[in-house]
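User: Sorry, folds how?
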Amino acid sequence: MRRRASAAAAVSPGVATIASSDSAGAASKRGCTAPPAAPAPAAEGPEFPAAGDALAAPPAGARVRVEVLNATTVRGLGRRATFYLRDRGWDVVAIGTSRAGQDEVVVLDRSGHPEWAKRVAHAMGGGRVESRPDTSRYLDVTVILGGSWRPPPEPFHP
């Protein structure tokens, strides 16, 4: 014998009720239907290279020193970018915050190796590459994160 949800419960206006599967028709007759689910918003952001993409990793035998600067108001974005780059073989030696906010990712070549900066930009899902050599820094590439960069989804590990 099938059990039905008790119809004796009073339904107040503006209060949602949960109907069982066999009383869903009765609930819709009382005007207690749930609104249709809104579609999930499309994730905007960079398109990240595949895990085995050789252009998203440092050249074989080279140690490329990278600095990551967060130019957004999102706390922890520089740390997420650091983990992302380190997982792909880049040697992130410095993390910081940039006071100048910006929307796009800018990758700066600091050591006269523009191909390394292009590889880092590719690993980050795109970005503008500029050459700004600075021999006073112990760096090869500086990544300045903009507001449009979102880290890729990560698997959940409890």
